Amino acid sequence: MPSTFSLALILFALLNLFSPLISGAPVEDKTTDLAQAKSRPRCADVIQRREWRSLSDDQKDDYIEAVKCMQSLPAMKPVIKEAKSRYDEFQAYHIKRAESVHLTGQFLPWHRQYLKVFEDELRDKCGYEGTIPYWDWSLDADSSKPLSKAPVFDATHGFGGDGAPGTYTLPSNHPPADYLIYPTSFKGCVVDGPFAHHKVPLGPGKYIGDHCLTRGIQEAAKAYLNSIAVKKIAAIPSYGEFHVEIEGMPLTTSHRPHDGGHFMIGGDMSNLYSSPGEPLFYLHHANLDRIWWEWQNVAPSRLYEMTGRSTTTAPFTNVTLEFPLDMDTLGESVIIRDVMDIHSEPNCYTYA
Ligand SMILES: [Cu+2]
């Protein structure tokens, strides 16, 4: 756990960086367009995203093999030249877009499309026949076992475990507050499982330098990830409040499932910019996306409910269904409307 002081310091840095967001009045111009929604073709077939522990060992191995395949394919046209693999290219684009796709209305839809293009790439370039699994961390947070014993951290059929203390040092010329780092989360390199000693070329934060995949599992994060925390957020009736409450700090003053999950894994994952260097990023965000999808399905009016500011700095506009979700060289750029119904073209997946 970071000390209260270091948490306060981080919060201060976050508040400074995003102060216009916090001080500005929320923009309320809800977009609900059911007529348009009905015109989108329904998928003939949907593929199922499943919870990690419901996969067979072979299915788990297939997913990890596909991720490792992405890490072995050359980058195509990365936005940061040091990105070496196609996998790194996804991380690079997240670093570049981090300040516009977090703490804004497009947070959930942008990450929904980001996951979709990553999943398409696993299937198209690496012959993967499955989907991105999701990690329902509430199951582990509700359990009396430590989070570090969660099946995702298994060394044989999982992503490997916690960082080994003393194996990693943050760059000394790295201003932690600028990069929104939790220094105590960088416990050490992952030394077991399929990503042991895997080299991440970008991060932590906006820093560029080869380093090991780092973790620092925080057991205290259970409080933000348990089923009570999830139920509380799922019960929020408006999207405007829901997307803030699921995303968390610094929009909120304490952790929520999104930032709490990032913080729980630690290392690059605990960073706003470089987090997709951690392969569990995709399973964490798939679970957030599932919670949003379930929220959308509570009432027909929610399926296309969208609101929130488009930028973290003035002048603020409100995101609408026409707002662009750029994916650059990663895959198809779409508008928010296109991602809202995952059972409609061009999405065609669901959560089991
Ligand atoms: Cu992100």
UniProtKB/TrEMBL annotation:
Q: Which UniProt keywords apply?
A: Copper, Metal-binding, Signal
Instruction: Please verify whether the record's keywords include Metal-binding.
Output: yes
- What domain of life is recorded for the organism? Eukaryota
Does this UniProt record's set of keywords contain Ribosomal protein? no
Q: Which PROSITE patterns does the record associate with it?
A: TYROSINASE_1
Query: A single Gene Ontology molecular function, please?
Result: oxidoreductase activity
Signal sequence, start to end: 1-24
InterPro entries reported for this sequence: Di-copper_centre_dom_sf, Tyrosinase/Hemocyanin, Tyrosinase_Cu-bd
Q: Enumerate the spans annotated as Tyrosinase copper-binding domain.
A: 102-119
Q: Per its record, how is this protein called by name?
A: Tyrosinase copper-binding domain-containing protein
Give the species this sequence originates from. Hypholoma sublateritium (strain FD-334 SS-4)
